[in-house]
Each structure stands twice: as structure tokens, then as C-alpha cells.
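Lab meeting tomorrow. Look over both lines:
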Amino acid sequence: MSDSTIQIKVTAAKKKTALLRSLPLPLTLTFPPSPPPTVRDVKTAIQQAHPSLSAVRQKISLPEAPKALGDESAILFGSAGDAELVLGDLGPQISWRTVFIVEYAGPLLIHPLVYHYLPQLIYGAKVEHSALQKSVYAMVLLHFTKRELETLLVHRFSHATMPLFNIFKNSAHYYILSGALLAYDLYRPGLSAPAVAGTWRDNKTMLYAAWAIWTFAQLSNLSTHLTLRALRPAGTTTRAVPMGYGFSAPFRLTSPNYFFEILGWGVVFCMSGSLAAGLFLAASGRQMILWAQKKHAGYKREFGDKYPRSRKAIFPRIL
């Protein structure tokens, strides 16, 4: 080893994929000592040596700790001026942006099919849609169209990709719960114009109030997404304490976007009484609560006393 270089030995993880077994490992990589190489540099060097193993598929860890190292982590060297890393294969990857686009496309395709084209086949009769059904149909389409546009134009992702298999697991939630089941239950004859005529579900004041609360929730959710986008400059993973609407008074929340999301779907559930809407609200709400609590704990660890103590994770003054 030259005085002007340092060496990193890369060995294979115990659990080997077919691709890892096909590579000539262990592999020795040579770097200049200054600046010290990062995990990203190691991944790039491995990809250059073996193009079949792209950087996004690689999991780099230490021999004594299986947890993946962050791309910006600097490599620590022993007294001999060398280091050893363990290489794992995460398998085929797909971009987060693509996953979200595919997920949200499900309800956008399924709801129009059930609403316009399949009532006779599904229910055995034509459905004269009520003002309630027309409203929830519009709310569903507007909500998922908003999500698609946010995915394309607003969201920035700290991780570029995820395992390819996850697209099937994640899509099932949207295609089944908020797609087929929700559409079937919302547009059934039991909520049609003749069925709700003269009831509170046919009351215009109720519908106007529901639209007002739902619109408030959607616009508030968008506002918090724009705030989070502004915190992270393009091409970085910068983290800072979010401030402003939703994060500060009167809500004071770590994840106001989740709160407003739950509020919007709560409106759909309350106005329709749909069991499918309730199931989707419960399942997605539980997941968002877990995400919010995890983010809340992470922010408190990361920012310490700088993080506002009055904030709750997801529900104002409650949780």
C-alpha cells in the first residue's frame, strides 16, 4: 500500500443473493487519504467495478453492526490505515416517486369505473346517484389527483428508491381499501338519490359544511407539504425544525399533514357512514399515528431543547 493511498476491503454479507454470489468478493478498493472517502464513494467504486450492482441496490455496513451506514458516513480506518466493510444486496429497486404514482392511480381508475360503468354489473341495477354520492366521488378523485400532482411537483425524497416488491404491498392498500372496497360501498343503491331523499344525508347545509371542512383539510395538508419541501433544498437531505402553519400555533404539531389527512377522510366517513370508508380511515390513520410518533421522537432526539416542547405528534393537545 502506498503512503498516498488507503485500502478498504469489502466482503459479502452472510445472506447472499444470486448477484452477490456471482461477484468476485472480497474486493479491495483504493482511495486517496484526503478527503476521507464516504459510504457513497464506496458504493460508486463498487458500481464502477461491477455495473450489475447499482449503488441503490447496495447495503454497506460494518462487520460488527448489520445496520446500514448512511451514504454520507465517513469511513473510519484502523491503525494500519485500512478498513473492512460488509456489502449486502437489497435486490431490484424502484423509485419512490414511481411507487406513489402507481399507488394513487388505483383509486383514480377504479372509482370512475364503479361510478359510471359498472353499477348494473355490480349491484344488478342502475344507480341514480345522490348529491351525497356525487360529492364523495368528487372528493375522492380530487384527493388522489392532488396526491399525484404533489408526487410529481412537490415531494422530495430522502431515499431515491425502495425494494421493487414493496410496490405490490403498498399498492394493495390503495387498490383494495380506498379503491375497490370504498368505491363499492360509496356508490351502492343504499346511498342513492331515492334512498337518502328526505334524510340528513340529502341536506344541502350538511353537504356545504362537509365540503368546507374537507377543502380546509386538503389545502392545509398541501400547505404543510410545501413547508416541508422548503426545508430540504433540492439534492440534499438537510433536516431542520419545521415552523409555520400547522407546525406552530394554534395546531402545534410535528406531523400536521397527517392530521389534516385524517380530518379529510373523517369527513368522507361521517357524511357517508360507509363502513369501507371507516375501515380505510382506521387502517391509514393507525399507520399515520405510528409514523407521526416515530418522527416526533426522532425530532426530539435530534434537536433536543431546540424542538418546541408544546408540540404534539399528530392531534392538537392530545397525542
In short: The two ends are 57 Å apart (CA to CA). Residues 94-306 form one domain. The first helix runs from residue 18 to 22. The chain is about 50% helix and 10% strand.
